[in-house]
User: Which sequence fits this backbone?
C-alpha cells in the first residue's frame, strides 16, 4: 500500500510546535469572525438561511457567474477554484494524518492518493495562474494578499519537489509539477525546513488576517449570494401602514450606519471593494458626486468604528437604476443604503424646494404633474367586460403626445381582439416617485387607496405602460397589501405575445435600436420581449450598453422631478444610440421624455424617439 507520508523530512517535534502556533492564530481568527458577526448582525442573516437559499448561494459562488459575466474572463475563477481545492486538500490531509490514522483509517492510499496528488498540483497551478492574471487589477491590499497566496503556492511546489527528490515513491509521477521541479532542486534538505516553516507561517498569518481583510468576502459572500435575488429590489418597508399603531416608535432610515436594519447591514460584510458598482453607476459616469463603492466601504468602516459621513449630494444623485446591484459579484445592494438614507432625510424635512413641490403635488392632486385630476382619462374610451384595465400613468395621462401613444396602443390591442377599460379619474399616481424619494408613508397611502379602487372595480388584470408603475405594482404592492390579488402585466410583454402569436403584425422598419428602461430590464428582467418585436421589424441593432447593463436616461429615483438642468445621462444615451440607428425605441414614458428633450438640447433633428407601440402601429400602417 502506497500512502502519503506525514511530515516527511522534518524533526518529530514539528507537528506539536505547529499546533501550538495555531492556537493564537485560531484565537485571532475567531475574534475577527465574532467581531464581523456581531457588528454586521450576521446571525440574523444566518438564521434566515434555509436549504433552498443555501443551495442557490453555493451554486452562485461555485459558478462565479456574476464575476465571469462582468470581467469577461476567468482569473478570479482560477484563483477561487485553486484556493478552494487546496484548502479542501489541506483539510483532508489534516483529518487523515492527525485523526483517522490513529484509528487505522487511511484515505490517501494507492489510487486515491495518486489522484489526490494530481489534483493538488493542478490546483496549485490554477491558483498561480489566477494570481498572475489578477495581480495588475488589484490595489495595494489586494496585491499584498495575492503575493501571500503566491508565496504559499510557489513554496508548496518547492517543498514537494525536494520531498520527491529525497523520498521518491509511486505517487511522485502524479505530482507532475513537483516531480518536474525535483530534477532541478537537488536534495536541499538544509533549506527544506526553512521553506516548510515559512510556507506554513504565511498560510497561518493569512488565516488570522482573513476576517480583518478583503478576504472576508470568501466567508460572507456565500450568505449574500444565498439570500439576495438576482434582480434588484427596493429596500424593505420599515412599517406597514395597514398594521402600524404607533408610527412614532418606528425606526425609519438611518442617521448613524449602526442603526441600519440587519438585512441591510449584513450585506456590507460581503463587499470586496472591486468597484464594479461604481464603474456601472450612471451618476458616477456623468460626474455626479456619487460612488456606490465608496458608500459601501464608508458605511462598513463606520460600523467598525471609523469616521464616515454619507453626503446628501451623493444620496440625491442616485437614479435608483439598480446597475450597482446587478453588477455586484457578491450581491451587495449599494442603492438600498442610499434609499434608506433618503427615508431619514425626508423624515427630517431635509429636502429641497422641488422635492417638496413633488410631495405637495401628490398630496393635493394625487398625480405627479400638479394638474387637476378632473377628466384625467376622458380622452380614452373604455370597454365593457374588459380583458385588462389599463394603467396609463401620470405622464401619458396628461401629456398630449402621451395621449396619442396610449390611444395607438389601445387601438392595437383592440385590433387584436382585446377589450380594454380604464380607471378614468380614479387613476391616481402609483406612488413610485414618492417611494423613491423616501416618503414611505405617502407611498403606502397610495398603495392602499389604489388597491381599494381595484377591489371596488373588480380589477383582476392590470396592463401597465410605465415600467416604474410595473415595478411597484408587481413587486412592491404585494409586500404591502395583504390580500393583493391583481395580475400585473407590462404592455411590452402583452405586445410581444400578440406579435409572436401573429395577432399583431410588424413589418420592415429600418434603423432601429432599443433603449432598455432600468425598471423593465433590471427590476423586471424583461429583456427578450421587446427584442422579439424589434427583430421582426428587421433593421434592429443593439446599443453597446443593453439589457441588464443598460444606461439610465436620468429620470429614475424621482430625479425627473428634482434634478435641475440638462440631463447628461440622456445625452450620453442619445450619443450611444446615434452610433447604431436613427430610430430610438423606448418603452417608458420617462425615457421617452428624457431622450426627446436630450435630442432637442443637442440640436439633433435626424433622429427620433419612438414608443414601442408606435413602432408596431406605424409599421403595420405603412404596410397597408
Ligand atoms: S442605483 Fe444606479 S445611480 Fe444609484 S448608486 Fe446604484 S448605479 Fe448609481
Ligand atoms: S458593493 Fe459589490 S460591486 Fe461594489 S465594490 Fe463592493 S463588492 Fe464590488
Assistant:
Amino acid at each position: 500500500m502506497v500512502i502519503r507520508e506525514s511530515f516527511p523530512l522534518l524533526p518529530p517535534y514539528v507537528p506539536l510546535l505547529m499546533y501550538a502556533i495555531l492556537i493564537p492564530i485560531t484565537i485571532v481568527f475567531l475574534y475577527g469572525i465574532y467581531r464581523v458577526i456581531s457588528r454586521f448582525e450576521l446571525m440574523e442573516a444566518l438564521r434566515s438561511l434555509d436549504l433552498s437559499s443555501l443551495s442557490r448561494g453555493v451554486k452562485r459562488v461555485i459558478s462565479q457567474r456574476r464575476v465571469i459575466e462582468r470581467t469577461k474572463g476567468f482569473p478570479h475563477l482560477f484563483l477561487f477554484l485553486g484556493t478552494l481545492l487546496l484548502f479542501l486538500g489541506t483539510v483532508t490531509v489534516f483529518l487523515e494524518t492527525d485523526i483517522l490514522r490513529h484509528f487505522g483509517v487511511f484515505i490517501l492510499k494507492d489510487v486515491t492518493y495518486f489522484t489526490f496528488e494530481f489534483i493538488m498540483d493542478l490546483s496549485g497551478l490554477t491558483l498561480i495562474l489566477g494570481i498572475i492574471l489578477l495581480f495588475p487589477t488589484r490595489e495595494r491590499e489586494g496585491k499584498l494578499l495575492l503575493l501571500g497566496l503566491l508565496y504559499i503556492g510557489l513554496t508548496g511546489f518547492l517543498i514537494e519537489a525536494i520531498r520527491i527528490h529525497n523520498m521518491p515513491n509511486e505517487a511522485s509521477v502524479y505530482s507532475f509539477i513537483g516531480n518536474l521541479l525535483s530534477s532541478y532542486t537537488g536534495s536541499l534538505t538544509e533549506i527544506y525546513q526553512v521553506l516548510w516553516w515559512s510556507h506554513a507561517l504565511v498560510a497561518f498569518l493569512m488565516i488570522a488576517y482573513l476576517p480583518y481583510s478583503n478576504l472576508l468576502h470568501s466567508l460572507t459572500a456565500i450568505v449574500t449570494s444565498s439570500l439576495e435575488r438576482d434582480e434588484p429590489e427596493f429596500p424593505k418597508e420599515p412599517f406597514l401602514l395597514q398594521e402600524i399603531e404607533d408610527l412614532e416608535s418606528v425606526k425609519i432610515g438611518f442617521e448613524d450606519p449602526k442603526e441600519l436594519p440587519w438585512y441591510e447591514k449584513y450585506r456590507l460584510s460581503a463587499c470586496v471593494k472591486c468597484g464594479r458598482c461604481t464603474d456601472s453607476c450612471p451618476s458616477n459616469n456623468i460626474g455626479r458626486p456619487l460612488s456606490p463603492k465608496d458608500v459601501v466601504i464608508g458605511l462598513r468602516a463606520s460600523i467598525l468604528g471609523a469616521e464616515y459621513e454619507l453626503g446628501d449630494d451623493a444620496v440625491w444623485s442616485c437614479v435608483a437604476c439598480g446597475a450597482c446591484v446587478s453588477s455586484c459579484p457578491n450581491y451587495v445592494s449599494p442603492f438600498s443604503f442610499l434609499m434608506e438614507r433618503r427615508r431619514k432625510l425626508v423624515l427630517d424635512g431635509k429636502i429641497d424646494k422641488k422635492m417638496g413641490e413633488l410631495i405637495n403635488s401628490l398630496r393635493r392632486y394625487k398625480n405627479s404633474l400638479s394638474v387637476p385630476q378632473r377628466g384625467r382619462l376622458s380622452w380614452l374610451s373604455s370597454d365593457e367586460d374588459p380583458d385588462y384595465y389599463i394603467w396609463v400613468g401620470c405622464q401619458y395621462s396628461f401629456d398630449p403626445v402621451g395621449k396619442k401613444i396610449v390611444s395607438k396602443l389601445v387601438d392595437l390591442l383592440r385590433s387584436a381582439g382585446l377589450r380594454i377599460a380604464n380607471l378614468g379619474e380614479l387613476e391616481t399616481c402609483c406612488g413610485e416617485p414618492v417611494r423613491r424619494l423616501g416618503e414611505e408613508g405617502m407611498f403606502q397611502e397610495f398603495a392602499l387607496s389604489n388597491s381599494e379602487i381595484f377591489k371596488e372595480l373588480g380589477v383582476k388584470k392590470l396592463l401597465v405602460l410605465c415600467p416604474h408603475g410595473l415595478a411597484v405594482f408587481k413587486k412592491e404592492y404585494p409586500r404591502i397589501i395583504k390580500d393583493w390579488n391583481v395580475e400585473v402585466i407590462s404592455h411590452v410583454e402583452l405586445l410581444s405575445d400578440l406579435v409572436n402569436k401573429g395577432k399583431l403584425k410588424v413589418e420592415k422598419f429600418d434603423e432601429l435600436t432599443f433603449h432598455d428602461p432600468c425598471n423593465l430590464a433590471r427590476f423586471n428582467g424583461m429583456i427578450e420581449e421587446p427584442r422579439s418585436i424589434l427583430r421582426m421589424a428587421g433593421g434592429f441593432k443593439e446599443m453597446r450598453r443593453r439589457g441588464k447593463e443598460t444606461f439610465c436616461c436620468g429620470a429614475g429615483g424621482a430625479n425627473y422631478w428634482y434634478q435641475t438642468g440638462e440631463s447628461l445621462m440622456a445625452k450620453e444615451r442619445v450619443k450611444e444610440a446615434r452610433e447604431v440607428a436613427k430610430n430610438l425605441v423606448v418603452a417608458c414614458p420617462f425615457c421617452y421624455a428624457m431622450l426627446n428633450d436630450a435630442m432637442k438640447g443637442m440640436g439633433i433633428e435626424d433622429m427620433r424617439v419612438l414608443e414601442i407601440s408606435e413602432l408596431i402601429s406605424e409599421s403595420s400602417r405603412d404596410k397597408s
In short: The chain is about 60% helix and 5% strand.
